[in-house]
Predict the 3D structure of the following.
Amino acid sequence: MHLDARRRILTDPWFLTGTALLGLLVCLAAAGPLLVPWDPHDISFIPLDPPSARHWLGINDGGMDIFAELLSGLRNTLIFGVTAASAGLVLGAVTGLFAAWKGGWTDQILMRLADIVLAVPSVMILILLAAFLRPPPWVLALTLAALTWPTTARGVRAQALTLKHRLHIQAARHMGGSAGYIIFRHLLPELFPLYLINFAAKLRMAVFMEASLAFLGLFDPSQKSLGLMISFALKYYYMDIWVNWLIPPVLLLSFLIMGATFVTISLERVFDPRLKTAL
Amino acid sequence: MQSPARHTWLTLVMAYLAAALILAFLSHSLPRMLPGDFVTAMYGSSDVTLDAQQEAELRAYFQDDSGFAGFLGRLLRLDWGYSYTFLAPVSTLFFDALPWTLVLMGTAHLLSSLLGFVLGVEAAWRRGTRTEKAGVGIMTVLEGIPELCSGALLLLVFALHLGWFPAAGAQTAYADHTFVQQTADRLHHLALPLTTLILAYFPGNFLLARAGMVMVMKSPFVLTARAKGLPPVRVRYAHAARNALLPLVTRFGLRFAFMITGALVVETIFSYPGLGTLLFNAIAMRDLPLIQGIVLAASVMVLGVNLALEYVYTLLDPRVAHAS
């Protein structure tokens, strides 16, 4: 069944497009310092200078090279997304597996906690934290993770509960395997596709949040971000400079979220047994 | 044993109450974790210097020593503090901005849910045709474009280059309009932000409704309904589609975080005078009491909507009430 799913996912055009987009953007972000010789914080250029051979996307109102800003912003947005998504995934998966394996009171308490956290609107907490304490982005990324783990925990728990009673898990248990051994050696690897779906969905959520909150002015303004660039560029939208200042971050952000969306949707179609027929 | 229905209800309401308390507690305690207090946060980085008496007066006004219970009491009495950039009570500002946001978000939700549901059901019914495949493709692409980007593009194209719609505001200021003219003017201003939000909400609704409907159409009862010779529209809506409604409602809570954030951004892009723009201005001016008030009141509204949806869900799907 897994082999079949793997073949199906690797031939799904949406999955391929999504991974290609994400891969391209990650390469662009990683190769940033090699592509532009300028420092994104260097303010020594002529403000609002149009694109030229030296400055591919021109200069912004503060005298900074827009292309350098763009790549730096893309990198920060990606780092935020990956941090929040992986932390949320790990937290959710471990909680879900633990709850499913222990059962009883542990399960009850953890799932009620999940209900509470799920009810809290995560944006509001992030806005409060960012406005009052102005923490560095990684703190906000981890906060987002701490608010989004319950979705993963619920999904993982539900799948793990059905796995728990399978023969090989029972065998491992009768052999005398400890909880940790069974959780990490057996349950954890078997739910692999679920992690992929959750990671992609969380990445999408986190990138969207980062861009929107930066746009609203909640992030450290010295930290480049695609959302912050859009916010500054929108102030000059009536000038011709929107072509090289506003459009690039808008496109990159759209491609980033599109990539994550395509991957999430195609993975859900292939791996979610209930959605499988809806392909 | 207790009846399962009451048990789930109790835990649900408790979860929402706990969430509300956590939020209230956070917004109560965060200002206390600041280095200094509201007054130093306000004037610490400004050029205004305060003499000792002024500082003491401000402290006395902004510092609240009544503890968490007193804070909750003031929240309930709508005494949310005083905005120092707008020089008005926070609750007044909040309730002035609220109607605009409700109109914008309410219309966007209504239209995109209805459209998404009907088109999703129709798409599933016509599964495999070229139109349906193209529709699903377009919707998947649209689902990947955030409001921040579609809003900026719509602003550029329709407000700046074509000039069809106003770029900012919710109505023409100081215009001497009759009621009909005023309504038309407001709709004209609403068009772009509304389109942006519909573009953001509609694809998700469409894809969910379609996926749900495709699954439901496999069930034997749909075959029975068709075999009975019922007209297709009746099979589709009276029999199948009401079951396809469920995933739309279940996923709503998960998508709500996206929706709120998106609405804040869209209002800011189009300078629509709702809560999003108010929050944006509050953030830009670092007006902490105002940020605190908006966030808390908006959170309570979000919690209320989600709880109401949970209730709607049990009405739509009686199985939920029995399974626990």
Remarks:
- The longest helix of chain A spans residues 66-102.
- Chain A has a mean pLDDT of 83.
